[in-house]
Amino acid sequence: MRVQRCTSCAQHYFYPRPFCPRCGSGEVEWTAVSGEARLVSYIINHRPLPPFDPGTPIIVALVELAEGPRLMTNIVGVAPDPENLELDMPLKVEFTQREGFTLPVFAPAGAVA
Length: 113
Ligand SMILES: [Zn+2]
Known about the structure:
Layout: E1 2-6, E2 12-13, E3 28-32, E4 36-45, E5 58-65, E6 70-75, E7 90-98, E8 101-108
Antiparallel strand pairs: 1-2, 1-3, 4-5, 4-7, 5-6, 7-8
């Protein structure tokens, strides 16, 4: 997984843009990150979610990468039940294909795939 990083202040950030949101520098680069994250918040959505409808219910989550940026994504690899979702739980990135796009999703770290 890659996100942008400022080469002036070393801040990782998401979403992608041509300048650093922290210091304004245009000296930015794409860099590989660990793919490790933690669960910040989530909902379990029971309604269809076009155009990417992988089947419902689906876990829509806010995760924070180990490098700092937060992003909206889906949690996979567990049943969509609050019993399986503990805030701050460690997560690991996986990639899924939907409608011709490759999207990052997250599974509990150490989960059996
Ligand atoms: Zn910066």
